[in-house]
Write a structure and sequence with these properties.
The chain is an alpha/beta fold. It folds into two domains: about 140 residues, Rossmann fold (3-Layer(aba) Sandwich); about 110 residues, Dihydrodipicolinate Reductase, domain 2. About 35% of the residues lie in helices and about 25% in strands. It contains ten helices and eleven strands. The strands form two sheets. It has a six-stranded parallel beta sheet, with helices on both faces. Strands 8-9-7-10-11 form a five-stranded mixed beta sheet. Strand 5, helix 5 and strand 6 form a beta-alpha-beta unit. Helix 1 packs across helix 10 and helix 4 packs parallel to helix 5. It is globular and about 50 Å long. The two termini are about 20 Å apart. It binds nicotinamide-adenine-dinucleotide (NAD). The site of nicotinamide-adenine-dinucleotide has 36 residues, from helix 4 and helix 9. Nicotinamide-adenine-dinucleotide binds next to helix 4 and helix 9.
Length: about 280
Amino acid sequence: MAFKSLGVIGSGAIAAPMLEAVARNMPKPMERLSLLTLPAVADGARALVERCGPRIANHAEVFTDADAFLSQRYDLVVECAGHAAVKAYGTKVLGSGTDLLVVSIGSLTDDTLRNALRDAAEASGARMILCSGAIGGIDLLSAARLSGIESITYTSRKAPRAWKGTPAEKLIDLDHVTAETVFYEGTARAAARDYPQNANSAATIAIASVGLDNVNVRLIADPAAPGNVHEFKLTSACADMEIRIVGKPSPDNPKTSMSTAYTVAREIINRMSPIAI
Ligand SMILES: NC(=O)c1ccc[n+]([C@@H]2O[C@H](COP(=O)([O-])OP(=O)(O)OC[C@H]3O[C@@H](n4cnc5c(N)ncnc54)[C@H](O)[C@@H]3O)[C@@H](O)[C@H]2O)c1
């Protein structure tokens, strides 16, 4: 079935390079692209859609009214906006029978929300897809779960400025960190809840493996961090695995690894292509 219509929620550090990448890779424009954002940044969103919309779709439009956005019919909606947006729109999108690609995976640490999203998807036949985001190797990690996981740990290491505006500010003096400092050690659930813009990867790894309460997570402020460094170590019955990813921080939001935008673009392009990889 042809992919005709894409809905995007958010117009920030993930959505902008994601749309540019999709625009560069469109074989031909689809019918419709709709983007929902907040009124305060709508001008920037309109400029973005004017720039890449025509290569993506014959009709491209920016919405600041969620009801108007949600009244359209989509083949896929992608959320690139934050935990609050998953909560506000997730069940409506899935309940309407539309697949939803979620990047704010940390929102799924709220069991009530996660169950509501699952129920909405089950009732309509739609699917919620958890974007791999800044993390690689989720395919093998999630397959290893089926063989039996013995242990898994995850560490996120970012420059001190990337932890600004988070509870880390109260735990350490981010302006004067001179050496790597572990400021959080605990479950993925609490990490993703307390660091919603930073710890989505912790939640992704946990949901793909042994669950939100069973992965040991460390968050580190490190002035020598070469980027947003994600490391995880797994031992399982079918494979042992050590992954280290040095994500390049988005110039618009240092909390976000640029690669996240391209993992969203990949999912969209795969859905439109006869061969998916
Ligand atoms: N899975 C991952 O690996 C990963 C990586 C980075 C970020 N994230 C998640 O992605 C989210 C977005 O990241 P970003 O760097 O693009 O953030 P950003 O702050 O640059 O952009 C967020 C965008 O969402 C829009 N927005 C926010 N609330 C909205 C709402 N209720 N309705 C419509 N639009 C809304 C804002 O206007 C803005 O355009 C983060 O909050 C984080 O939770 C996930």
